[in-house]
């Protein structure tokens, strides 16, 4: 499991020049990696793969954006997204894998 480091000078500079976005984590689905209320920086142009935490649009709730970990990629190029805290997570185990278009970016660091 990849750890999310605190934002250093580089990540803060990338935010300043608008190459990162700030997202707030809501809920406990990503515990212990990410806590409710924590803010993270997201690279919307990143290449991501298995093990990365990403921000994604919920496939059935257009007003919901979620943080989940990529656990696999199927043969159709769809991403299986799962919360680290399985008891508190609505994820691909319920709604299935999502296309890459639903993924908005990769979490790069915590913004403290």
Characterization of the model:
The protein is mainly beta. It has a single domain (9-110), classed as Umud Fragment, subunit A. Helix content is 11%, strand content 31%. Strands 1-2-6-3-4-5 form a 6-stranded antiparallel beta sheet, with no helix packed on it. A hairpin with a 7-residue loop joins strand 3 and strand 4. The protein is globular. The mean pLDDT is 95.
Element-by-element helix/strand order: HEEEEEHE
- The assigned structural class equals mainly beta
Radius of gyration: 13 Å
Write down how many β-strands occur, each being a DSSP E stretch of 2 or more residues.
6
Terminal CA distance: 21 Å
Query: Can you give the helix content as a percent range?
Result: 10-25%
Which topology does CATH recognise?
Umud Fragment, subunit A
Q: Any idea what the CATH superfamily is called?
A: Umud Fragment, subunit A
Biggest sheet, spatial arrangement of strands: 1-2-6-3-4-5
So, CATH architecture? Ribbon
Task: Write the topology of this structure.
Elements: H1 9-16, E1 21-24, E2 39-43, E3 53-57, E4 65-73, E5 79-82, H2 92-95, E6 103-110
Antiparallel strand pairs: 1-2, 2-6, 3-4, 3-6, 4-5
């Amino acid at each position: 499991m990849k750890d999310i480091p605190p934002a250093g000078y580089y990540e803060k500079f990338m935010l300043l020049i608008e190459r990162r976005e700030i997202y707030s984590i809501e809920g406990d689905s990503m515990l212990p990696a990410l806590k409710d209320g924590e803010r993270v920086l997201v690279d919307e142009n990143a290449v991501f793969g298995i093990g990365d935490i990403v921000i994604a649009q919920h496939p059935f709730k257009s007003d919901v954006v979620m943080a989940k970990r990529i656990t696999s990629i199927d043969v159709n190029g769809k991403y299986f997204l799962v919360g680290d805290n399985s008891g508190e997570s609505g994820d691909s185990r319920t709604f299935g894998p999502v296309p890459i278009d639903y993924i908005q970016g990769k979490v790069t660091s915590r913004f403290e």
